[in-house]
Write a structure and sequence with these properties.
By secondary structure, the protein is an alpha+beta fold. The chain has a single domain (3-113), classed as Gcn5-related N-acetyltransferase (GNAT) (Aminopeptidase). It has helices spanning 13-31, 37-50, 95-109, 124-132, and strands spanning 3-7, 54-61, 64-73, 78-86, 114-120, 136-141, 145-151. The protein has a seven-stranded mixed sheet, sandwiched between helices. Strand 6 and strand 7 form a beta hairpin. The longest helix is centred in the first third of the chain and has 19 residues, at 13-31. 24% of the residues are buried.
């Protein structure tokens, strides 16, 4: 199986929208809320056309789209990882690991100090996945979500 990762462009808008909507419906089922598809579409279009402070990465297995990840600079020296999704048939095959490696490269190239992301509390698979990559629960966001954080550069222990 050959995995390739590339930065998305405007020509990928339909694929990005499709994956972001799948993710929103999946998370919506976990928290009991229907996603606002119009706001998702508006955000993706804005990001791809006007937001230089973010990047979408797409994963492919052979020529088939297998996953997505978005990373965006935020206030201070932080960046947020979001829109993380792997197509069902490609889960547990290293896709998200490869996408995260690209996000980490992106953050390092911009001298970002820390990364954070939001995880649905009931998504125990996602929680354990991100913990393997050094993310720790920072705080709760409402009753359904957790904020996880990690430094971009690991601390050096002497």
């Amino acid at each position: 199986m050959r995995i390739s990762i590339r930065a998305a462009s405007k020509r990928d808008m339909n694929d990005i929208l499709r994956l972001c909507l799948k993710l929103a419906h999946y998370e919506g089922k976990l928290i009991g809320r229907e996603p606002d598809e119009n706001s998702i579409r508006a955000r993706v279009v804005h990001d791809l056309l006007h937001n230089d402070g973010c990047a979408y990465y797409l994963a492919f297995v052979e020529e088939e789209i297998a996953g997505i990840l978005k990373v965006s600079a935020k206030d201070g020296n932080r960046a947020k990882i979001s829109q993380t999704y792997v197509v069902g048939a490609h889960r547990c095959k290293g896709i998200m690991t490869a996408l995260f490696a690209k996000a980490l490269e992106w953050a390092k190239s911009r001298n970002i100090a820390s990364l954070y992301l939001t995880v649905v509390c009931k998504n125990t698979y996602a929680l354990s996945f991100w913990e393997k990559f050094g993310f720790r629960v920072d705080c709760a966001k409402g009753k359904n979500l957790l904020i996880m954080r990690r430094d971009v550069q690991p601390a050096i222990i002497s």
